[in-house]
Amino acid sequence: MFKPVLKALEKEISGAIALSHVAQVAKHHRIQASPGIRGACEYAISEFHKMGIDAKLHSYPANGKDFDWTSLRFKEWSCDDAWLKLIEPEAKYLARFAEKKIHVIQRSISTPEGGLTAELIVPRNKGEEPEDYEGIDVNGKVVISNGDVHRINELALVERGAAGIIYDGMFVRTDLPEGTLDDTLKYTSFWWTPQDTPGLGWVVTPRTGRELRRLVAKGDPVKVQGYIKAELYEGYLDNAVATIPGETDEEVIVIAHICHPEPSANDNASGCGATMEAARAIKKLIDDGVLTKPKRTIRFTLVPEMAGSYSYLAEREEDIPKMIASINLDMVGEDQDQTGSVLVLHKTPDSFPSYINAVSEAIFEETQKEFKSIGGNPWMATFRHAVGDFSGGSDHYIYTDPTVGIPSVMMIQWPDKFYHTSDDTIDKVSPKSLAKVATIAATFAYFIANAGEREAPWIASQVASREKQALSKMVQAAIDKAAIYDVDSYKVDEVRDYLKEKIEFDVEVGIKALKSIKRIAPGCESTINPLISNLMAEAEKEYDHAMKILEDLAEKQGITEFPDNEPEVKDEPKGADLVPVRLYRGPLSTRPWMRSLSPEDQEALRQLNKKHSITHGGPSTQALYWTDGSRSISEISKLVELETGSTNLPYLVEYYGLLVRSNKAEYQNQ
């Protein structure tokens, strides 16, 4: 069991040491493929060496042409200076790179030598549509917008000759008082592909943006002067990789992304600090004889988010079958009182169930036992915490893609009101949070690195117990929903049909999670088979229980007969019966793929996302996880609905069509 390991690590791990690493990493301007991120990686490698841990810089040519699976290696970028001034109707600085690195749109190119002087114009709406520029002279002007900077670059700079962009946007957080982030800068970046014509721009605060818009609205000329000295060039993308060797060639991986603009303390210098302290503590306890050398190697990868993991896995593709588990630390150091965050453990997707969900959750729960209530029970925690279903958006979603096959959980503090802004500073980082996460990650990595036949029964019991708890909770939620309404209007048969389908789905996920234990303990069949039978029997009991309660609810309203529900037959969109096959490995890196499409298909994808209000992948991430060449789009859509509670079949049909037209997928039955 992991508890002795956790207790030993708790005593050794220091939040203050982790915080010192966060402070050092945060001093670097860590844009993916840049001198700044290389400096941060070199710092981490030097510190690993001081711990007695072997560490190396893994560098990959970043030339804007080569790919790791579908991930483009963006060119290296450096910026020496940038500033923006208002010169008419008054003179004052609006942005200075020397003050805050987020004052420039990252990966901007240089202004003409000596800078530029131009009139400021405001397009209609966000400036993301051609009609937003009708009747407006854009040539040679600077455009202010809070829209998609790539779209503004294409429409205003490339097609209409604008000189540059001023971005004044901010994340919309309805839970924050209006004006909370008025004097804050949003991290904004270009991501150039070979199909792009690079442009340039600056970032100002929402308050400054409103002031500039008011001046333009008065009708008098508003002029700005700007300067950027920057360079895009063929360079390198760098990862820092540290290794605590095991007795076998199998391995467990701890991931943290090391990129983002200076300071970006919680996102994600905090993940790096927690990872480095986890590594130090494990190594120290091994050296002191408190812990034995692990059976499996433990690797610690500090990478440019997404791109670094793509490169690392593509580089070691033949070793992927030996990578048995991973944990991703992303934004983990938050001072919860300041950021408003919750420490969340996110599990693997239902398309790739794993025993590591139960193991990580058990460790997570143990660290919540900080003190007992006044009556002696129960144990309580002094921090906000939750366990969540799968969520993408960080390096773990590459590892846990079923085509890669490395189960990965993520720990993150969310929401953080300073996310991707200039206010993500070191004073918002808590040594207590860092120590907590470092302890969880170190315990997870060391326990999994040693887990085998001996640990399998306990792991199996944890998996089975948690699957049954989740099943019971889901059934009760359905009953709760039915009890809110008159049973007559809600239709008992609808609940009955839903529960039957959902229970069957959840049981299958649970069975796969139990079977995944055989990856580390091939001889555990006699342990897991009875647990599988028990899980199936419990599912039947839960269903029978639910039906009895639903009938009782109806009877209290005088309903004693339940005619069979006739589900509404919905016409499926044309193509829903097609069976897609993915022709690439790992998740699809979206922007390089989108820019590789024909102009017509690029616009079709943009309009498709706009029509269905898709901003961050929508149902496509989980849908592609379920795409194994045996299921139709309709079947995939249903699985997404059972997993997440919602889906969008018309969207998916069109989305897969775009994948096929761009040779990223093909249809099995055509």
Strand order of the main beta sheet, please?
1-11-13-12-14-19-15-18
Radius of gyration: 27 Å
Number of strands: 21
Q: Please outline the major beta sheet.
A: 8 strands, mixed
Q: Helical proportion?
A: 40-55%
List unreliable stretches of 5+ residues.
none
- Write down the overall mean pLDDT: 95
CATH-assigned fold name of the largest domain:
Aminopeptidase
Query: What name goes with the CATH superfamily of the largest domain?
Result: Zn peptidases
What spatial form do the alpha-carbon principal axes imply?
Answer: globular
CATH architecture of the largest domain: 3-Layer(aba) Sandwich
What structural class should be given to the helix and strand makeup? alpha/beta
Estimated share of beta-strand residues: 15-25%
